[in-house]
Structures are given as structure tokens and as C-alpha cells.
Amino acid sequence: MDSLVTANTKFCLDLFQELCKDDAPTNIFICPLSISVAFGMISLGAKSSTADQINEVLYFNEVSQCKSTEPEISSKGASQEQGDQQKISEPPNSQNTKSLNDGYRDSDSYFGKLLKKLDKIKSDYTLSMANRLYGEQEFPICAEFSDNVMKFYHTTIESVDFRKDTEKSRQQINFWVECQTQGKIKDLFDKDNITDSTVLVLVNAVYFKAKWEKSFDHDKTEDSPFWLNKNEQKSVKMMRQKNTFRIGYIEDLKTQILEMNYIKGKLSMFVLLPTFPAEDSTGLEELKKQMTSEKIKEWTSPTIMCDEKVDVSFPQLTMESNVDLNLILQKMGITDIFDETKSNLSGMSSDPNLYLSKAVHKTFVEINEDGTQAAAATGAAITTKSASHYVTFNVNHPFLFFIRENKTNTILFYGKVCSP
Fold first, then answer.
1. How far apart are CA 153 and CA 114, in angstroms?
2. Looking at the predicted structure, is the pLDDT value of residue 290 above 80?
3. Same domain for 241 and 286?
4. How far apart are the first and last CA of the chain?
5. What's the Rg (C-alpha) of the chain?
6. In terms of domains, do 279 and 349 share one?
7. How many CA atoms lie within 13 A of 211 on its CB side?
8. In terms of domains, do 165 and 224 share one?
């Protein structure tokens, strides 16, 4: 499963870099795991170059290199006979490349196991990952594909009437997303997004909320300046607390890194705070360039981070992000699936005209003071130094952060905050 976690981290950083290419001072908040799960689901039915592009961009091909020695049912076919039937049903002009046709069963199996692990600890936080495919009812979905989506990705494909009842279909999708995200994400698709020519829609929405292991005192929150750059500032609600946290300093990037655990310590937020921005910079540019999967492991390791008494100032934050995945993923190399003349989803449907019409990714995050008494008691036990000195960690200018599930080291969310 480690290879899947690494693949998810690599895709996360690639996606983030693509979103940051215009260097606009905008907030970004993404859930790479949710997008990977969604496209892993689609890849079950993808063939030829359509599959290869998904594999390469999301690094599924690297996961597949770690073949399991245990006999198991392939996610691309319950038996060799079924696999042969799939090859026979491919269009004559399609390329039989060594892609998903050969069964990327490790990534599918690992996704299933990872999702089960996350479900087991849901009582400690709220994590709603809404992934579902909606297909035009005139495009019949293969039963085997539906079964494998349910088996490995714990979701279903819904049949709707885009052509004859477009508005009802749009409202049905939006209502499902709103329910999955506890009402926080509404009207995911506007009327322009879904038309009577829509044939396949990938829905991808995420909602997350958790309590701190060490809560902030509401009475200590006060209005404070947040510097957008060296010359501009805005007033924000700044939370404050003094406590013991894991903290480190990345010398070559002049950046502090702080870990704040959520309740029971199963998830953590890591905050990367560069030195106060220079005249023509937010301070994030070099940090964004240096971020790699290997660097994240290094920076969050005990060689960089240790327990210290820290004086933390952190802004209240409510952030919503909406990403057009069609545009972004095509820039990253996934193009065929969005092109009705090139898309090969013959493992999903016998109809040769199926392609992905629209894919959007919308997230919501809320960060405030809330915690629990039990969690506060946990934090009081890990003071490692007797000195009264506190390290200052003042998040009063742009920063990067990510939220990680600690047992598997899976990055669930990754974000940039330029203006809380």
C-alpha cells in the first residue's frame, strides 16, 4: 500500500503545481485522494491510450509494478476468460497496449483497503468523500464494471436521463452531493455545466471537519493583521495557544513546519510557514518548487521535527475551492477521455461513443478553535523541556498546509492560503 500512498502524494504535488502556474495570490484546497479514487474507478473501464494517460498522470503505473504474489480476482476481470471477452469486445481499431487491460489489480485492491481504513476511524472526525459516476441511460454500463466499482471503490454508477430531462438530472446530482457533504456544498453543477448532450459526469466533492487534540481558547481569539504581502494586510480572527507541539525548521528554505494533531492523533495538519515575505514575493514560491514526496517525508521526520513548547497564532479559516478538472487534467496529460473521438471506455460500456463530459472537484474546509477536554489532557503529558521559553509560530502571512492520515501517511488534503 506504500506505493499507492506515494503515488497519491506525487499526483497531489503535480496537481498543485499546475494550479499554481499562474502565480495568482489565490487560496487552493484540494483532496488528491478523492480525485485519485474517482479516476481509479473510471480506469477500471478504460482501455488503450485512455487508460495509459490516467495511469501515467496519477502514477497508477508505479503502483502496478509491485505485483502481489497472492492469487486474487483481478479488478479488470473475475477470470482470464472474462479478460479475453473484454479484449474481443474492444473496437477493431483500438490499440492493445499493456495498460489497464492487463489488470492493475494492486492499485484497485489497495484503494479498497485504504478506504476501509479511513472508514474505521470516521467516528473521530467528519470526512465525506462523494465520488460517483452519472451516465446517460442510453449508454448501458457493463455489469462487471459496476460490480468492481462497488467492490473496490465502495460506490455506484447512477443512470440518469440527461437528454430528455436535463434539469431533473442536474438537480438529482446536486442534491446527492449536498447530502454527502452535510449541506456544505450546494449547486455543484450550474445549468451551463450539464446539457442534453452530456453523456457521462464524474462527481467529486469532499467535506472535512475535525476537532483539535489541543484546542484553542475562544477567549484568546482576537482581531489581528494578516499580511497578504509586504505592503498589504487584512484583519483576521487570530486564534492563540501555548502548548507542546512537534515543530521544525527547514534551513535552506527558511521555513518553519508545525504539526497540529486532530483528536486522538490519527490525523494531523502540517503547516509550512516561510520567512516573512519579501517586497515582491509571498514567500511561497521557492517552497512550492521544492516540494516533493521525498522532501515531505524528510521534513516531517524526527530529524527535522521534535517536541517543543510553542506559542501558536493561527487564523480562523473557512475555505471553499472549486476546480474544473477537465481543463487541469488535460494540461497534465489526460486528454483522450474528454475527447469523444478518442475516448476508449469499452470496459465500461459496449457503446463506443462514451466519453467523460464533465469532471469537477469542489472542497470545503473549516478551521476554528474547537477541541475536547479529553484531548487537552492528552497534550499536557508531553512536555520534554523544563525551560519556559516558547518558540513563536505566528501564521500572519501566506502559508502551505496539508492534512495527513498518520497510520498510512496518506495526504488527504493539501492547500495554499494567501488570504484567510
1. 10
2. yes
3. yes
4. 35
5. 23
6. no
7. 16
8. no
Strands 305-315, 233-250: pairing is antiparallel
Q: Please check whether residues 401 and 360 belong to one and the same domain.
A: no
Confidence of residue 171 (pLDDT cuts 50, 70, 90): very high
Is residue 164 packed enough to be buried (19+ CB in 10 Å), middle (13-18) or exposed (0-12)?
exposed
Scan for cell 502551505, then name that residue. Answer: 400
Neighbouring CB atoms inside 10 A of 398's CB total 24
C-alpha cell at 244: 507542546
Query: Is 70 exceeded by the pLDDT of residue 120?
Result: no
pLDDT band of 69, cuts 50, 70, 90: very low
pLDDT of 93 strictly over 70: no
pLDDT of residue 75: 36
**Which structural domain range is residue 270 located in?**
218-316+369-417
The pLDDT value given to residue 67: 46
Q: Which residues contact 323 (CB under 8 A, 6 or more apart)?
A: 19, 30, 360, 361, 362
Looking at residue 397, which CATH number applies to its domain? Answer: 2.30.39.10
Cell output for 196:
442534453
Rounded CA-CA distance 337/340 in Å is: 7
Task: Label residue 363 by pLDDT band (50, 70, 90).
Answer: confident
Identify the band that residue 156 occupies on the pLDDT scale cut at 50, 70 and 90: confident
* CA–CA dist 325, 302 (Å, integer): 36
Instruction: Identify whether residues 98 and 226 lie together within a single domain.
Output: no
User: DSSP for 266-298?
Assistant: SEEEEEEEESSP-TT--S-HHHHHH--HHHHHH
The CATH number for 143's domain is 3.30.497.10
Where is pLDDT greater, at 109 or 92? Answer: 109
> DSSP per residue over 203-226, as a string?
EEEEEEEE-BSSPPPGGG-EEEEE
pTM of the model: 0.82
Integer angstrom CA distances of residue 245 from 182, 221, 397: 31, 19, 20
Output 328 or 93, whichever has higher pLDDT: 328
What does the pLDDT look like over 77-87, one tens digit per residue? 333 333 443 33
Q: How many domains does the chain have?
A: 2
Same domain, 205 and 238: no
Residues 258, 126 share a domain:
no
Mean pLDDT of the chain: 79
Which of 103, 82, 100 has the alpha carbon at shortest distance from 46? 100
User: In the numeric block, which cell numbers belong to residue 31?
Assistant: 483532496
In the numeric block, the cell 476468460 is attached to 81
* 170 and 202 part of one domain: yes
